[in-house]
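In the previous lecture we treated proteins in isolation. Real proteins rarely work alone, and many bind small molecules. This record shows how such a complex is specified: first the sequence, then the SMILES for thiamine diphosphate.
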Amino acid sequence: MVRPAAARVSHSSSLRRTADVVVEEIVRAGCDRVFGVPGGPIGPVFDALYDRSEIELVVSRHETAAVHTACGYALASGQVGVSISTCGPGLTNSLTGLVTARQESVPLVHLAGDVPRADHGRASVQEVGPYGLDLADGYRHAVKMAIEVTHPSLARVALRRAFTVAREGRPGPVLVILPLDILTASAEIVEPTIAPRTIEAAVPDEEWERIARGLASAEKPLVFAGSGVRISGTGSQVLELAEALQVPFATTAHAKGTLPETHPLSLGVMGHARSRWAAAYAEEGPDYVLALGTQLSDLATGGYRPLAREGGTVVQVDVESTSFGKTVIPVTATLQADLRTALPRLLRIAKEIGPRRANPALERAKAGPRVEQPEDLESTAIPLSPARALADIERSLPDGATLVADIGEHGVFALHYFEVKRPGHFYKPVASCTMATGLTLALGMAMGDPRTPIVCLTGDGCMGMHGLELITAVAHRVPITVAVFNDSSYGMVKFGNQRVFGRSHPFEVGDVDFARLAEAIGAIGITVTRPGAIDRGMLELAQKEGRPVILDIKIDRETPSPGNNRYKQMAAAGTHRSI
Ligand SMILES: Cc1ncc(C[n+]2csc(CCOP(=O)(O)OP(=O)(O)O)c2C)c(N)n1
Ligand SMILES: [Mg+2]
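The predicted 3D structure, ligand included, written as tokens:
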């Protein structure tokens, strides 16, 4: 496409417009796609993007979705995600996405405009707060770092720093606020030199040896992997460690997809939506637990259930010291270390020690079925059982596909029933539990790695929040498959309230025909009502046609997920009892 030149004053060669410098830095960081919703004060950045054909602009319907989609893109492509919003409502709409990026540990740079500084506090349109909210200050606690560019010469330093901080240590979002007067101004640019921060594993070898020996000599040891294992890309090393010592392993719900659940040492998911194997192994309480890259949150532990038996040992290893001391469950020792440097050291020692003796507790735990109601996976009932629909999806996944699950009962079904055969092919955002995060992340993932087919399992409620983002998928010919578990309600809260209060509003969200909605936006729509109707051809259609496919799966509205032990926790909280 031939693009007209901008109608703007040209500057002398040594002076650079801030907006152009910002976009140059995006290119320099290796980002080839940005996601955003435009608006006045951020206008110069969009204008500067107009000149850069190497960056594709994806226009979203809502800023939360723009940030989430940028996150998905980052996760799948390995780049830092870049999202863009205007000020005021654009930035407040972005906040949820920024919190998601923080909690999912996604490297992201968010660019937000601001009213010109001369208008701060003068009741200018889209300025937030009665006297002008200090946005950088207001958002500082939500993001990894917030930078307000206060002089045009500092744009390059600010952006370079933003991209560096977003990636280093535990990745996360950096907010860069760019007032309109700065974006349009030109200045001599300060050239930064920023050395990346290295997190040195200061833990001595004796510590790792103590842990390896503890796991090897315990009666009932456990390696418990959290999402830090996925973020650091150390799943295969955790697996090697477990194999070297012959120690069983489990993942948090958030880390499901990091380790193979078909492995003889796997107990599946522990905590929220836990497998029956994990429940059985946890029953008497392990005596030695190595918790890797987890904050031991309520979901990770299934309502702050202690990980070890009384008198047992729990060692928590995490790259960020802020992950420690957040939980009420007993932890014996905390070690701050980057798993990428820690695991090779631990593994070397573990290999010297060699495999432990047989573990009868593991055999006992795995004697029964992995899931609560295995018969549901084969159910022939109509309306369709959610477990059966999930089993049909699992059986029909295209080769190498990733299943991304959203927030709601459908997501808990996926956590509990889906069996991870190959690591990296399941993802469920769990930390912030923001509805439609799965859908919007999945969209970004499908754009970030076109070789991996993406099937997103979402709910009709989530579709109501961000379903129209699929217009973006149509516009960019993204071959994503979206399987909607349609129960015409906010199922999770309906079942939750029934459990907690003994009654509930139906929380109906209408009998929406998502197949027709799909057709209306230019996607392919298919209605599914029968068990066995979902097949491989259906899940390969999006790739074949080069556009999104929405499956409107009419599931039984009265079947709660078996794995949702959160209700019990909420009920207990209501009566101020501990559980
Ligand atoms: C932004 C946001 N608002 C509210 C909630 C609380 N909530 C959790 S699940 C859910 C219902 C989800 O409905 P749907 O997508 O239809 O999934 P279902 O539970 O029916 O499978 C709600 C309202 C939330 N997690 N996030
Ligand atoms: Mg629903």
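Summary for your notes: Confidence is low (pLDDT under 50) at residues 8-12, 575-579. The radius of gyration is 25 Å.
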